[in-house]
User: Fold these one by one.
Assistant:
Number 1:
Amino acid sequence: MSAQQPVLQLQNLARVHGAGATEVHALRGIDLAVYPGELVAVMGPSGSGKSTLLTIAGGLDTPTSGRVIVEDTDITTASVKELAALRRRSIGYVFQDYNLIPALTAAENVALPRELDGTSARKARVEALKALEEMGLGHLADRFPDEMSGGQQQRVAIARALVGDRRLVLADEPTGALDSETGESVLALLRSRCDAGAAGVLVTHEPRFAAWADRVVFLRDGAIVDQTVRNDAESLLSGQVAEA
Amino acid sequence: MKTWLHSWRAAIRIARRDAWRSKGRSALVLAMIALPILGVSALDLTYRSSELSPAERVERSMGAADAIFRDAQVEGVPILQDPQGEMHTPAKDYKDQAWPNGRTDVTKAIPAGSTVLTDRSGPAKLTTVHGLLTTEVRELKASDPITRGITTLLSGRYPEKTDEVMATSHFLEASGLSVGSTLSARNFDRTYRIVGSYELPDALATAQVNALPGAFLAPYAKAVEKSGLPAPGTSTAYLVKKSGGFTWNTVQQINTKGVAVTSRAVLLDPPAESEVPLYAKDGWGSWDSSPGADAAELAAVATVVGLAMLEICLLAGPAFAVGARRSRRQLGLVGANGGARSHIRAIVLSGGLVIGVAAAVIGTVLAVILTLALQPVLEDVMNQRFGAFDVRPLELLGIALLAVLTGLLAAIVPAVTASRQTVLASLTGRRGVRRSSRVLPLIGLAAVLLGGAIALFGSLATESFVIVAGGSAIAELGVVAMTPALVGLFGRTGRWLPLSPRLALRDAVRNRGRTAPAVAAVLAAVAGTVAVSTFMASSEAQHRAAYEARLPYGAVSTFVMEEGGRDVPAVREAVQRHLPVDVRADVERVSVGKPGCDPWGGGGQGCGRYEVVLPKANECPLYATALPGAGDPSEKYTPDQRRKMITEDWRCSQSSGGGWVSVDGGLLVGDAKVLQVLGVDDPGAVKALAEGKIVSFSRAQIDKDGTVGIKQVTDIAAADKAMEKGLPAPGKLSSVPAYLVPEGQKSYGVQLLMTPATAKAAGLATLPAGAYFSTERMPGTEERQKLDGELAKLGSNVDLHVEQGFVNDDSLFLIALAVFAGLVTIGAAGIATGLAQADAEADLKTLAAVGAPPRVRRTLSGFQCGVVAAMGVVLGSAAGVLPAIGLRLTEEREAIGFYEEAIRQGWDNGLSGPPYVPIVIPWETLAGLLVAVPLGAALLAALVTRSRGALARRAAT
Amino acid sequence: MSIRHGLLALLERGPRYGSQLRTEFESRTGSTWPLNVGQVYTTLSRLERDGMVAQDGEDAAGHALYAITDSGRAELRAWFEKPVDRTSPARDELAIKLAMAVGAPNVDIRDVIQSQRHHTVKAMQDYTRLKAQALVTVENGGAQERDDVAWLLVLEQLIFQTEAEARWLDHCESRLIRLSATAARTTDTRTTPAAPAPAAPAPATPPAAGAR
């Protein structure tokens, strides 16, 4: 598995907001690689740069220095147009809430990136239905967002983030507006998609949700201070305590 | 290409659902776009349906016949005619020689072997339930198959016997008669029975009675003549049916016999212009408008359409802007999911597209339905039956495309603005303080300067309206473009205002994207209104200054010149009965020959006329009788001499005294009461009348020996011949001693006055002509209407004048214009306020949270509305006054130029003096717009806003 | 104590013998509390002494069976109804460690906290992995559903407990940052202005070391 190419690579990433006296180093020297099948959680106190990291990784913001490589493409040098195309084809976003376009049904929301990319409406719909079906959301296909619960909306958003060939999900506090049980269902879906081969980056401040990840990255003052790697579950059963 | 299509489809779907979700806003914008489209489409449908095909037109004019033959009234000499047979002139050029004028026998020109039907018509005074009605009587055998299509039988049947007629529905309505009634005419003892009603499909509002050939007109003419009146003229046309029809060549052959032909074959297949010799003749060119006029007309139409679209865009634009603002998060999501800027633009533009298409469909469909449903009403208004219901898909499509275009244009600016937002800003809802574009105000400023310069050049250096108007239009568009910057200026004035207005002003200035279009819409409407009303107020002042009363204020005059004054006593009685008459002064006129003749010598055998002799020495040299071949006598003088004569020579500067009497020389017969009614205060004149003198207001008419000569001409033909040779007409001359009224007395067109006794003594016969009345007070409208009704029943041509002083006909138009501007202002301000309310919901919550009383919401919305209205009105008034002044300056230059030219050429009597072209600012209208409209808008907005924000909630969903 | 009541709860479903009780206990609690048979029998004899269980013959294989008595049932009901006693908190080594670390020389308390957090979150990750497996089993509805649900609840209890610990660590850290920032302002006025928060040396493991 380690021979695989990372889906997302952040190299020596830095981002400075403002200048002079009001200069704020939101990110400094971040190095991170996310591989297929891996879910990485980013934790840290507020102001540590979690969200900035995610927006830069998705090309919604540009780093002051460093490189962001998504599936062999250096997006720091890409044009606005190319970035938009990249978001259509490679990167899926899931935000805290109001992820879905109220004017479109679940299926149409999922089909949106494909349609924007120029796929015919019928083909996009077939793909969207397939994606929803795979995630056990087929029954929601023709509902509008305001006819769905918050958890359902978030799960449809995950489906949209991974429709077509997209293999990278960037999720910013996807459970922030949900109760514990519903939040879990969203995380479980994300987990299962990563187990099926997708790569995910999850920003959260709830350790309980971060614990679903394969790797937890701790961010403090814009830098990575530490990260955990999961043990084999079996080792725990056998009562041993494992260290990374 | 395909990719592009797919992504647009997604955009349209989002826009469609969004439009459906915010129904109120969508409906408003839709109505704004659909209404003009509805109107224009309905107009197009009506126009196209009423515009007949050549075949339909032929059927309505000649039925099943192949041609209509008409006498050209040129004594049968060869003529040239146009393909329609409407215009014709003798082929030979007569120049100064006597033109042929007389009948020819048309039947001789009709080829043998054709079927002929005569179509004769002439006027008759028919008795109705209310009185008399002068009606056209037509003798055409309507039951003949050849006439099929000319008339449409509505009820009853065609006349079959000589005492049977049928009448148009319009006549029946106007006369109060019905099918089955008896019809009679004045001076005519025969009666007819109306057996049917019909209509002329091309002229629904025609009063016409149809009788069998020979059944009415000939006996009627005889009877009228017997009672001493001239017989009414008739005109005859011949419907000719001949196998093979008449080609253009045949028509031209028939023309050689002095007969004009309207041929079916020629109408259906008109000859080329080069084949029409008439068009080659001087002054008879084809009447097609020149390409330049076409271009000007096109430009005018394009300008009107363009301005209307701009106005709609300005009104609808903010709605789209707010739609985009409200769905910012949604647009951000699209961006996060890979929507490029073009996609975002596409979504917002699709909003315009969706609304535009919906408006186009609804407008067009409603137009078709309305036109179909209102067809009978429209036909009445158009005064003709439609041909086929003519739907021109291409034209309707073009009009519908305008709707789509308007929708798209209105959405362009919001679309570009929305697409410029970064995805991140859209998602986080950060309201990036967007600098308003600096380019647009600069372009606007450039346009203002350029337009102003053009208008200035136009008003100072040229006399061309188009240049001034065009320059003003450019300048106004420039002001519209500068609106955002100007709105920014207003923000600086807000510092010392109390909370609510300050909040409203700041909000308006901070959200320029929303405020500016609404202000611009108000600005455009107000500027137009102010420009037009300033222009019209100035014109009104000019007309008021130039107005010449025909009578003293409140006085009444009435004249009847027909039938030897038979109805005059009745008319005098009627006036006295209905109006508050104080003094009545009956007047008569001098008559020569049979009493039934018309006063100017027409009417045939036994008719004559009189002339007031102008002594040769008193003739103005410029207007002297022209001798044959000598040319215009005024050409003998230099412009300087002419100017001198016109301004200084009393013979040339004649004044009619502000009125006009339709008898030769202004000669009336009456007593001193006439002077009293006309307000002539001269005891000498009263005395002179009593002494049997003729009272003259014109020095030129009095000969050296102090008399006025009146010549009775009995042989009109001889007199006309003498005239042509520049000789005095033969006739008996009576000289009456005269009294000249001192200058400075206004006589309102009466130049000579003598008593009946004096006239009799001079051997002049008189006939009643009418009367002058002075009134106790200005007659009311109701009294006038009653009188008009009564006079109409007499069936005579009564000339009634009530002097009301200067009446401004335009005032209603001005009011309508001001009301329109007010409505647009309130509408635009209302839209902007509704949008501001929806936007300000969060601010209002904060306000409430810090303890603002609930009425703040109300006052705030009132002020928001008022602020938009006030800004637009102030800017619009400024932008509107200037072009009006420019236009007036142009007019003044033009008038002065014309005046100078007139004096130089010796045309003008020189009495009106240099032209008076004032510039008057309509302060009432301006004040109404500047104060009342913003105030009204503010109050209205405050009233309809609930203290709990129901409006905002509705707008938000 | 909980083993006492756990055994009583198992016995309420019917008589059982010692090693059988141990197996069932472990399967219910997911071997988070491993028991040895000796502990079981000691507890059983104490329960018998207190009259809560009684010997109830032998099964076919000759194991001695225990059955719950009426007073045992009453005790069990009382246990279920009574909230867990929190009057004498368990002495927590972590709390004591942090309390000692404050003010100790040569110790960066943030490192202490981070290494503890690392450990805690990793434990949570592991529990969550187990929970994810359990969730799948429960949703597939196996024969041992009842036991699986119990196992799930135990796992979640562990997760929430560790989460509480992680949150407490977060809280400690931010509190310490704030306090030290205040201290830096009051004491270091004459030195050059330091970074708002103490520098974060954070050696930690090299990032992205080959993933898993």
Note: The CA atoms of residues 83 and 154 of chain C lie 17 Å apart.
Number 2:
Amino acid sequence: MHKCSKCGHAATSLEEIDAGCPCGSKVFVFDRQIAQAAAAEGNSDAAGAGSPGSTPGAGSIGAPGNGGAVAAGNGGNGTPAAAVVGAVSTFAVPETSKDKTPGAPEEQAGKVPESYFARTSFTTDDIENIKVLTQGVFLLDVNAISKNPVVLKDEDEIYYVKLPLVQKKPADVAPDNGKKE
Amino acid sequence: MGWLRGIFKRKKAVSLGIYGSPNVGKTTLANRICVDLANEPMGAVSPVPHETRKVQKKENMTLKLNGFTLSMNLLDMPGIAVKVDYRDFLGYGIDKDAAQKRAREATLGVVEAVRSLDKIDAALFVIDATEDPYTQVNITIIGNIEARDIPIVVVANKIDLPNANTQRIREAFPGYEFVEVSAMTGENLNKLYSTIANKLS
């Protein structure tokens, strides 16, 4: 279940996230507790397509297992929403229309293919904090993104590093002079 | 500069980081300094970019010059780049899997080098005198070092090459301590040591 970060409005479908919240916000936060509660009540639609073992409704979106995922709507310009994911979590975003295999039974049922989960996740071994899944679709590691530098890995496995802007030395970091490792 | 002297009086050793883009001669310079001060080299050098992919550290070396004594830990940083493309390594006879592994390690090295900005007390920023100094890496990293109030010496390396142009480096980064050297031949290394001593004394 995704909630609008501004007004708390619950979005139950990708289309709703993609179009943005009625309040004008385009940022939705995945609420694991609500999703778990909904799943416990047998509401598979609320749990989302990504929940293992669930049978989601068409167009729904979700995160399997771990929370901390954020989906950002794009204001309805036709491209899919971006996914933002916490470390070691997975999050599924339906691929762009050109990447879809029309007529695939699992997609007709609104289910994201298993192979997609393998690609759309971060592990502790990943050094990048942004992945380009396909054109216009990004996966972001929310926990790591706040730390400089930002590292992006594109579809061709090429790394791009955004060097930090000029900044002062953090006050709480002490130099390691004279320390033995 | 009084506060700086105070810092170094209190500390046992100064952490001196060697920064710069890949293949500007950081490890060659580190090896030269380590051999001069500790009689042993720091690490391997290679024409293939990103040969140094982890921070190399040589501890407790002593620089003695004209009555000045400086104990320091030398940190040879991985080359900092804004793009690491495994395809750049394929031309050196490295297969795709090894090249992708090298690219991953190199990117990790860039991250480690940037994070190490918070751990150094002084920096040598090495620039290849045969290349254009107006790069994003040079400008950004020197800016970050400056913003952290870390003493910095800009080192124009590879002056032994015929197409070296140190003047444009001076013009690109005016106001910094500047030394032109050849880490390969050892030319002007004594001047570099003297500049370090003056900067940190």
Note: The radius of gyration of chain B is 16 Å.
